[in-house]
Write a structure and sequence with these properties.
alpha+beta; four-stranded mixed sheet
């Protein structure tokens, strides 16, 4: 299954970049697409990104969260959250 980063755009989702040296960065899908390209997948990010501190290849995990602002989603037909996103 291809986990395209572009499928996260328009959702309240972030991507955790976790490295073996305990470095963690939380980035948006737009940030990853700017660096990896529009057709990039989560697996592409794991192969191409490197930790700034230890130079290892990190693991990427998409985290979504449901809106907690009290407002209702006003979009006509909001797209479904991809099923591979961890909802917290």
């Amino acid at each position: 299954m291809q986990r395209y980063i572009a499928h996260l755009i328009g959702h309240p989702a972030k991507v955790d970049i976790r490295c073996g040296c305990t470095t963690v960065r939380v980035v948006s899908a737009i940030w990853l697409i700017e660096r990896l390209g529009i057709e990039a997948t989560i697996e592409d990010g794991e192969r191409r990104l490197r930790c700034r501190i230890c130079r290892q290849y990190p693991k990427l995990r998409a985290n979504g969260e449901w809106g907690v602002t009290g407002g209702r989603d006003q979009r006509v037909d909001p797209p479904a959250m991809p099923d591979w996103v961890d909802l917290t």
